[in-house]
Amino acid sequence: EFAFAYELEYKNNSYFVAFNANRKSKLDIDLPEGWWKVLADKKSAMAKRSKSIQGKIELGSSEGVVLLKK
């Protein structure tokens, strides 16, 4: 199994990036506290209408996500 996730600060914004590199199984990741806007996932990148999430996110095999704290 191999996955990584990290939070970073850039120009007064908080970002959370996660990637599940496992080719065979999904992975549940606990998100840092608060609401997060999805900037990129398996369906789209920088969509005009993006969803907001909190709590946990499920990443499928070989799937990643980029989030912006609201």
Compact overview of the structure:
By secondary structure, the protein is mostly beta strands.
Proportion of beta-strand residues? over 45%
Mean of residue pLDDT values: 93
Within the largest sheet, what's the order of strands? Answer: 1-2-7-4-5
Biggest beta-sheet profile: 5 strands, antiparallel
| Portion of residues within helices | under 10%
| Spatial extent as radius of gyration | 12 Å
Distance between the termini: 31 Å
* Total of DSSP H or I helical runs spanning 4+ residues: 0
Task: Tell me how many strands there are.
Answer: 7
Helix-and-strand structural type: mainly beta
Explain the layout of strands and helices.
Blueprint: E1 3-10, E2 13-20, E3 27-30, E4 36-40, E5 52-53, E6 56-59, E7 63-69
Antiparallel strand pairs: 1-2, 2-7, 3-6, 4-5, 4-7
How would you sum up this structure, described in words?
The strands form two sheets. A five-stranded antiparallel sheet has the order 1-2-7-4-5, with no helix packed on it. A two-stranded antiparallel ribbon has the order 3-6. The protein is mostly beta strands and 70 residues long. Helix content is 0%, strand content 54%. The N and C termini lie far apart (31 Å). A hairpin with a 2-residue loop joins strand 1 and strand 2 (13-20).
